[in-house]
């Protein structure tokens, strides 16, 4: 896909992987719309790159519909969607208090929330965006590209990551079927599985914690840079034969149980 002049929507685009991708696509001539809950950061990034911002909660059908309508009104119908919106928690399936012996199980509402945001929210945006892309005339045999964000936790889930791993595993599991669903409409679908990246999730951690995490990565032995995620996302957009794939971006790490 020739990126110049295209429109993209990036969910979770106000920080971390999404913000880096927004900047990378904008530098390639793409008009970028940002979905996020953080209005201050979202508007700042949109202003920086000459894009547009919409406050969107991906668990809300109304928010997503309103967000797409707003971005399309400002920038035109998107031919690129990058799903970066997501979150996680760390709770064991069942656990025992070491002092009192009390046994507790994972609160199901907290499990469901992660699924709603990471998996259903991603699918909601895919479905709505794909329907919009189908209205476009093909250019060089393509109408659009959709890129999702899973995690290496989908394959190497650690202690306490049942909900997060399930949600990200679901994103991987639906990638190929959706790519097949949309093949005749000339829309490609791929998913990136980031490893340990220096995003807002880790930026508040003490230096010694980040150093310990970086030491787990075989090569290069450091945290991933959001710009490296963005580079892969751009390659997935530009390379017309890149379709139906789930790609780890992790410095060869395989996560230990803890």
UniProtKB/TrEMBL annotation:
Any one Pfam family here would be adh_short
Which residues does UniProt call coiled coil?
A: none
SUPFAM superfamilies named in the record: NAD(P)-binding Rossmann-fold domains
Keyword match Oxidoreductase: yes
* Key words of the record: Oxidoreductase
Q: Is the keyword Oxidoreductase in the record?
A: yes
Could you tell me which InterPro entries the record lists for this protein? Answer: NAD(P)-bd_dom_sf (IPR036291), Sc_DH/Rdtase_CS (IPR020904), SDR_fam (IPR002347)
Q: Which family does it belong to?
A: Belongs to the short-chain dehydrogenases/reductases (SDR) family.
- Protein name in UniProt: SDR family oxidoreductase
Q: Which organism is it from?
A: Sneathiella marina
């Amino acid at each position: 896909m020739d990126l110049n002049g295209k429109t993209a929507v990036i969910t979770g685009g106000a920080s971390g992987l999404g913000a880096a991708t927004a900047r990378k696509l904008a530098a390639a001539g793409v008009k970028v719309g940002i979905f996020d809950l953080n209005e201050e950061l979202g508007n700042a990034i949109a202003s920086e790159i000459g894009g547009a911002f919409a406050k969107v909660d991906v668990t809300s059908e109304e928010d997503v519909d309103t967000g797409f309508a707003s971005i399309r009104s400002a920038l035109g119908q998107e031919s690129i969607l990058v799903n970066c919106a997501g979150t996680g928690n760390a709770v064991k399936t069942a656990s025992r208090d070491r002092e009192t012996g009390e046994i507790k199980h994972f609160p199901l509402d907290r499990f469901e929330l992660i699924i709603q945001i990471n998996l259903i929210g991603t699918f909601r945006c895919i479905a709505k965006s794909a329907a919009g892309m189908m209205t476009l005339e093909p250019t060089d045999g393509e109408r659009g590209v959709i890129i999702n964000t899973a995690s290496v936790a989908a394959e190497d889930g650690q202690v306490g990551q049942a909900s997060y791993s399930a949600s990200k595993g679901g994103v991987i599991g639906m990638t190929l079927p959706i790519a097949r669903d949309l093949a005749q409409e000339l829309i490609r679908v791929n998913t990136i599985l980031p490893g340990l990246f220096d995003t807002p999730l880790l930026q508040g951690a003490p230096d010694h914690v980040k150093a310990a995490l970086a030491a787990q990565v075989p090569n290069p032995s450091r945290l991933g840079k959001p710009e490296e995620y963005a580079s892969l996302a751009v390659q997935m957009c530009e390379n017309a034969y890149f379709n139906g794939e789930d790609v780890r971006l992790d410095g060869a790490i395989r996560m230990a149980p803890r």
